[in-house]
Design goal:
The complex is a heterodimer of chains A (about 325) and B (about 270). With about 325 residues, chain A is α/β, with parallel strands linked by helices. Chain A folds into two domains: about 5-160, Rossmann fold; about 185-310, Rossmann fold. Helix content of chain A is about 40%, strand content about 20%. Chain A has twelve helices and twelve strands. In chain A, the strands form two sheets. A seven-stranded mixed β-sheet of chain A has the order 2-1-3-4-6-5-10, with helices on both faces. A five-stranded mixed β-sheet of chain A has the order 7-9-8-11-12, sandwiched between helices. In chain A, α1 runs parallel beside α7 and α9 crosses α10 (about 255-265). By secondary structure, chain B is of the alpha/beta class. The longest helix of chain B is centred in the first third of the chain and has 19 residues, at about 5-20. In chain B, β4 (about 175) and β5 (about 180) form a beta hairpin. In chain B, α1 (about 5-20) packs antiparallel against α10 (about 255-270) and α5 (about 115-130) runs parallel beside α6 (about 150-160). The chains are: A alpha/beta (about 325), B alpha/beta (about 270). Chains A and B meet through α3 and α5 of A and α5 and α6 of B.
Amino acid sequence: MNKIANKTIINNVLIEEAAKDKNIIVLCSDSRGSASLEPFSKEFPKQFVEVGIAEQNLVSIAAGLAVCGKKSFVFSPASFLSTRSVEQVKVDVAYSYTNVKLIGISGGVSYGNLGMTHQSPNDIAIMASTPGMRVYLPCDRFQTEKLIRTLLQDKAPAYVRIGRNAVADVYEEDNVPFELNKAVTIQEGSDVTIIACGEMVQYAKTAGEILKEKGISARVIDMYCVKPIDKEAIIKAAKETKLILTVEEHVKLGGLGAIVAQVAAQNAPIKVVSLGLPDEPAISGEPAQIFQYYGMDAQGIVKKISELLVYRC
Amino acid sequence: MNLKKKAYELRKDVVEMIYRTKNGHIGGDFSIMEILVDLYYKQMNITPENFKSDDHDHFVMSKGHAVEALYAVLADRGFFPKEDLKTFVSFGSKYIGHPINKVNGIEMNTGSLGHGLGVGVGMALAGKMDEKNYRVYVVMGDGEVAEGSVWEAAMAGSHYKLDNLTAFVDRNHLQISGTTEQVMNQKSQEARWAAFGWNVISVPGNDLDAIDNAVEIAKKVKGKPTIIIAHTVKGCGISFAENQIGWHHHIPNDEEYQTALKELDERGAQYE
């Protein structure tokens, strides 16, 4: 089992790149520990900005740096970054179109037993509905690395949401298919399609394998690019399989499921069912317990698809 | 160039813009005109020629609703043709009712209050990191400083010893619903900023010489940012608009328009 968290990978990539590019700046809001930024802050103190517990100012400062040619990488828990600083994200980053990459750490229900203050059940909805903002939820360490290296090449705003803990590898070190804004088909299939993002992809992948053994051909799509979403992949799945099931660590309103359903409804109407967090504060527990409780893990996905297919007959 | 007279000529441009389009914030435009004139005509190293370079001074209009004053100044400084301002707030125009970086000469979009100082802190930090000589200027309103984010930025400005950052509070005592003291007490601005570790200078804010002197002092202060509390008169330049709450965004009628232009001519003529 992989023990390297996605945030550690981002830190490693930025350390490597910052040595070559003094314009790479990392900012945090008393979150260097939770973001695993100690190594970066020690190695590049002049490229590291601590703003204290002040997430609004965190984003404004990042934007001001970007106007002056810096490549700002902002690290803060997704819970605070997506709601406490949402107006600064809207005005100073998205609207002003500054080169700020927002890294929402410990996203979703990573802090499953700390209450909704520390969770980001609606960050996808907020960020994706902001004009000009891109939203990415990479699934494992290998894809996270590819994504960050790619985002370093452009000047547009983006929000990247990752979880707190290490997650199982979905890809292999020497086999990481990646094209910016293109979904990855992890498993081909013709009966149903499972579309997942972020850390739910590992469950979708396992579910696809279990379904295969049961004789159900499930296409599994890693939609790490929630915005701009890969419409082509959705339309193709809608035309070639019987139903789409989406899985996300987010409420069902305004997230991956809603976006997928919108694309499908407008282009190739098909039944789209979403799995996600409820419209109430999530039950307390470790993330895995929470995913199991709400039927979002591999077994939950298999169960839901089995039910839906029976119903169709 | 006679800058004191210039400030009144530019006010006429603002009146024209607002009267013609029935849109704008005349009171706050007029209270900060001397600040803008000092910065754009005398103090700041920023021109249409160097605007795309890495070394020019930076300006953030944090009280974005005073955009008409900024447009008048930028047009007069050659950032875009004055003719362009005829499209102010018209359908599809880039000259909208708040600063936007689609307009040449503007780097940061504002409008929502309380953002500009944090952005200015970021710009000043970048200057320190790169050992640039540029300076950063931010203009805020006195109603605006009720925003908590201003004080987050104030903390960071002194924490990082940003002596390349100078901010203004347009202390005209009025905001849209009443006096600042009625709406949210903003007394003791000087003490508040001093407590946050800033170098504080208090000046009569429509006195060009006093502003220029304060900006000069700020340039010499080391180890801390400077706040200039500019005690201004909202609507300064038109007798019947001065210190009137209603003129925050009042649109002059035909008679007020004619009288305003006449008064502004007379005020400007004092400096010939």
